[in-house]
Here is the input.
Amino acid sequence: MSVNQILARKGREVVTLHPDATLDEVARVLAKKKIGAIVLLEESGEVAGIVSERDVVRVIGTAGVSALSHRVREEMTMNVKTCTGSMGIDEAMQLMTDGRFRHLPVCENGKLIGIISIGDVVKRRIEDVEREAAEMREYIAS
Ligand code: AMP
Here is the structure.
């Protein structure tokens, strides 16, 4: 089971902003799109960073609501871990577990082609386990 198979079902749309956007814009987009993270792209299309709801809470919790005027460039995570479409979902889940983050942008040849969350991966794993159990029951009964 690969990351590409998850993208085939959920789609390849990625919500992005420019790193000069403010945290206020980040919070609005997260709320409007009902998502947990936004990828920040430079004009060139290069991934500059990632910001999640956790970063917004951290900034407000430490600097107060006035920090919502900060540029996301100042608060984003710059060392973004990514995966490829051909990566297996177990490996992708391991990357997220080891790095303690829940979002993994998918890149091919330096271009952003999708994003998966730990929720997407867990949903897919549960479906697989349920299907395997049903097949096993059918095999035993036949
Ligand atoms: P999350 O669990 O995705 O809400 O993110 C927790 C923290 O990890 C936040 O500081 C994010 O900026 C950061 N983060 C999220 N996704 C990634 C990623 N793929 N690579 C590196 N850092 C990330």
About this structure: The helical segments are 3-10, 23-33, 53-63, 89-99, 118-141. Residues 3-141 form a domain with the CBS-domain fold (CATH 3.10.580.10).
